[in-house]
Design goal:
Blueprint (H helix, E strand, L loop, with lengths): L4 E4 L2 E5 L6 E6 L4 E5 L5 H14 L2 E6 L19 E3 L1 H9 L1 H11 L12 E2 L13 E5 L6 E6 L4 E5 L17 H13 L6 E4 L5 E2 H19 L15 H15 L1
Parallel strand pairs: 4-5, 5-6, 6-7, 10-11
Antiparallel strand pairs: 1-2, 2-3, 3-4, 8-9, 9-10, 11-12
The structure holds zinc ion.
The site of zinc ion has 5 residues, from loops.
Length: 257
Amino acid sequence: MGRLTEVAPGVLVATSTYAMTTSTVVAGPPGSCLLVDPAVTVADLAALAGELADLGLRPAVAWSTHPHWDHVLWSAGLGDAPRYAAPAAVTLLETEREAMLGQLGQSAPGHDLELAGRMQALDGAAIPWDGPEARLIVHDGHAPGHGAVFLPDSGVLLAGDMCSDVEIPLLDTVAKDPLGDYRTGLERLASLPGVRHVVPGHGHAGDAAELRRRLSLDAAYLDAVSAGRPYQDPRLTPDSPEWMRSMHESQVRYFLA
Ligand SMILES: [Zn+2]
């Protein structure tokens, strides 16, 4: 886990060596913070808890952007803040809990499983807390109840698993309309005014121009793959992880079927 780095005033991001997964900290009233998607290994969470303690920040509230195992983690060292996710995300975490824990155990063993995926459903326009406004943009692209967070004061968009510089769009292919859901999500993010920084769930933070570039890349990928056209996404190379190349192949097959 890399150190927490300030991407905008009061917004700090740490990046795990595991799939470049990001954890975001938003500083609030003295001594408190909002923690989004703490990830991903047991050692990462211990390092994160240690850094927060060094900074004198205690999580007052937490948000999980979506119900995939690498975004719903927690450790006792992070405290007992209320942890929220969108209602559809919480429903999936409850119905698919065993599968989620299975993936977690395989990919990042050793976590306290009692704490994994224990979110409360939050059906609101913003995360309830005393810190900087944290607006929610909930849609079903990538996963049910995918909740990006926009911080209007600092212009930071926490995009969840979209708008990455290292991952292609990954569709929720068991949904009724995976393509429509994903496009709706991208449109919602594209129409947000005032975004100056984007932090993806996996990859590097970028500025407003970089967000535009990634939105175009994501749209181009979806247009080509859904039309059955061959397409070379710059994020998909022979060096890409095996799981991503096979996800791409299965998305190609999904649209050919
Ligand atoms: Zn995901």
